[in-house]
Write a structure and sequence with these properties.
single chain, 325 residues, Zincin-like, four-stranded mixed sheet, 11 helices
């Protein structure tokens, strides 16, 4: 197995387990201090149950809200213009041993693709109109390999579960803060202590969000691996898709590299401003990929992002490409 893949899987396991253990240990310690060890589990279960119910409701009905926000319309296999896209998704689903998801076209002015769904709405994948104009079929297939990788790995469910931890810390801190402000001291501490620790927990919940972002970056990288390992020539075509999307939303990207001033480089694959350049040359694509292959990316480059920096993704795909082919 590729060493980079082993490192990626190990990082996901360690980070996920670490977030759960650290989060619950902190919450239990604080709840036990203020409410007593005997009542701490009840307090935690009460808050957690409330949050789980909210998350489940959001998960079940979220796809319908997403469709409304993105003006997404389902594509039929018989659609004379976009029916081929359904066939493409069917092929990628077959490679991934998945049930065929519903296919949607999103009428929004930026290149994007995303997988989503719920037990009520079913599995879905959406592609925006600008993405269809920028990429060829092989590149779209590679992007779909990434997106269906999220469905295959149940990333939505995993990240929802992990996201409960900072939210749990936040709610406990919020409760203590307001309890302190209202003068609701207890046998162990006065109201001032409750307020201070509540504020501290709010800050800690914010810090935990960086761990969640880190795990999300690992899941995105793992979805890249899925495309590279399940789609024929997936690694190469996903590299090209990354480069094309970046050049379409920032035509000056190559000039920034040439001037060694790339601080404004995009780190996310599927995010962009409103003005799209649909005329991206193959020469520019190859040149940008070559820049990314050799760029040394500092560890903090994507610290605030939920996607790895583009050069990191290109270099991972290159290592996979070399090991696969």
């Amino acid at each position: 197995m590729n060493f980079a893949l082993i490192k990626l899987k190990l990082g996901m396991v360690v980070a996920s387990v670490g977030v759960f253990l650290l989060g619950f240990a902190l919450v239990y310690a604080v709840a036990g201090y203020f409410f007593g060890v005997a009542f701490a589990p009840a307090v935690i279960i009460g808050i957690l149950s409330f949050l789980i119910v909210l998350n489940i409701v959001q998960w079940l009905f979220g796809p319908y809200l997403i469709n409304a926000m993105y003006r997404a319309v389902e594509v039929s296999p018989t659609d004379p213009k976009y029916g081929w896209l359904v066939d493409l998704v069917d092929e990628v689903a077959m490679y991934n041993h998945l049930d065929i998801p519903k296919v949607y076209i999103a009428d929004v002015p930026f290149p994007n693709a995303f997988a989503y769904g719920s037990p009520i709405a079913g599995k879905r994948v959406a592609i925006t109109l600008p993405l269809l104009k920028i990429l060829n079929k092989d590149e779209i297939k590679a992007v779909l390999g990434h997106e269906l990788g999220h469905l295959r790995h149940r990333d939505v469910q995993l990240l929802m579960a992990i996201g409960l931890i900072p939210t749990l810390i936040f709610f406990l801190g919020y409760s203590l803060m307001w309890g302190g402000m209202l003068g609701e001291g207890n046998r162990n501490n006065n109201a001032g202590s409750m307020w201070l620790i509540g504020i501290a927990l709010l800050a800690v919940s914010y810090m935990f969000q960086f761990l969640v972002l880190y795990i999300n970056r690992l899941r995105e990288a793992y979805a890249d691996v899925n495309s590279a390992t399940t789609i024929p020539n997936g690694a190469e075509n996903l590299q090209r898709a990354l480069a094309k999307i970046t050049l379409s939303v920032d035509p000056n990207t190559l000039e920034k590299y040439k001037k060694r001033n790339n601080n404004q480089m995009m780190n996310m694959l599927f995010f962009s401003p409103m003005d799209i350049n649909e005329d991206v040359s193959d020469m520019d694509v190859e040149q940008l990929i070559n820049y990314w292959k050799t760029e040394k990316v500092p560890w903090y480059a994507d610290f605030f992002s939920d996607h790895p920096a583009s050069p990191k993704r290109i270099q991972l795909l290159e290592r996979l490409k070399n090991s696969i082919y």
